[in-house]
Specification:
One of its GO terms (cellular component) is plasma membrane. It holds the Pfam family PK_Tyr_Ser-Thr. By secondary structure, the chain is of the alpha+beta class. The protein has one domain: Transferase(Phosphotransferase) domain 1 (Transferase(Phosphotransferase), domain 1, Orthogonal Bundle). The longest helix is centred in the C-terminal third of the chain and has 20 residues. It starts with 17 loop residues before the first strand and ends with a strand. The chain binds adenosine-5'-diphosphate and magnesium ion. Magnesium ion binds next to loops.
């Protein structure tokens, strides 16, 4: 079994702690936002290589309260004890651009598999599968359904270590009234079953 580190306090980050450098480098984009490389200065003044996810407005007319709610929901789903196979947050900014700050990783599993010049060894793939299962078990044991598990939402930390990311579609497995939710995978989509 893997060792779980104690939960850390979340940092509220201001814009001046994030430096994109001269050429803002896009690391990836998905349905909910864009992820850029940056240098994050932590409260002790240490510069850390980081990735910052900036949430896209849902639509042109979306109001700031709705946008805040989305980033807050993603942030809340990540507020579980740390686990080696789940990305953790370095901080959050809800005042300006609505940003989530995470440690910088190499790339996602999708890109890693697509760009590998030689076939990825089977023992490495099975190690990744076992780590993904371990990470998902950790989420479920803290009442979080990820609801969007795919290679683009798995990060390569190094060739021996993955981390699950992207909690934009995640939801608590128990609703406000204490009823259990379920998730079905139908026609390549996750469908939430609201109470049973
Ligand atoms: N911490 C990170 N380090 C490096 N690349 C990242 C990191 N987080 C995300 N990415 C890249 O950005 C892409 C989109 O991030 P993701 O969180 O899945 O956003 P979305 O909700 O828009 O799908 C990922 O597929 C990955 O390629
Ligand atoms: Mg994604």
């Amino acid at each position: 079994m893997v060792q779980i580190e104690p939960e850390e306090e979340i940092q509220i980050v201001t814009k001046d702690q994030i430096n994109f450098g001269e050429n803002k480098k896009l690391l990836g984009r998905g349905a909910f936002g864009k992820v850029y490389k940056c240098t994050f200065t932590d409260p002790e003044g240490r510069a850390i290589h980081a990735a910052v996810k900036i949430i896209d407005p849902i639509c042109k007319d979306a109001d700031i309260a709705t946008e805040r709610r989305r980033i807050y929901d993603e942030f809340r789903n990540m507020m579980i004890p740390r686990h080696p196979y789940v990305i953790h947050l370095l901080g959050i900014n809800m005042a300006d651009d609505l940003m989530l700050i995470m440690p910088l990783r190499k790339e996602c599993l999708k890109k890693y598999l697509a760009c590998s010049r030689t076939p990825v060894p089977v023992n490495r793939l099975s190690r990744f599968c076992s780590q993904i299962s371990d990470g998902m078990m950790h989420l479920h044991s803290h009442n979080v359904f990820h609801c969007d598990l795919k290679a683009g939402n798995v990060l390569i930390k190094d060739e021996f270590h993955i981390e699950i990311c992207d909690f934009g579609l995640a939801c608590p497995s128990i609703d406000d009234k204490g009823r259990y939710r379920g998730v079905l995978f139908i026609d390549r989509c996750y469908v939430r079953i609201n109470s049973f």
